[in-house]
Model the fold of this input.
Amino acid sequence: MTFYVENETDREFPFDIEEVAKAVGNQVLKNENCKYDNFAINVLVTDNEGIREYNNQFRNIDKETDVLSFPNLEFDTPGVYYIPEGEEADYLDPETDELILGDIILSVDRIYSQAEEYGHSVKREFAFLVAHSMLHLSGYDHMTEEEAKVMEARQEKALEDLGITRDI
Done:
């Protein structure tokens, strides 16, 4: 698995963001029984202004948010990874043959403020948002209450499996 992680801010984290992103990403995909072993995900850490610009550009919503997810695959059923025959070039990196799952954009400002607001560590908030976004990259959404409950349970399961609890 390849995680391309870029922090375009000057803000530092008290942990290795690439290591945590990889661990969370792997755990989510393991829990989802992803049949692909070789995949790529891009992670960009920006600030509130940066994520507001991306949100406006790609979603026509002119406000900041904590995380944006841009899946590369289309899902008929969440968690069922399928590449239509003959369309491999649209989903696989031609140089590495990795399945390109998509892009994640995180706001460092929101990570820090939400960690404080919810009373847990910055690492826990970062991991939570990566898990949330990984589920979006796996076809899940939270447009209805039922969908939200499914996503929340899957997020918590991945973090529990890694020992990343609200106490950490």
User: Anything to note?
Assistant: Residues 44 and 105 are 5 Å apart (CA to CA).
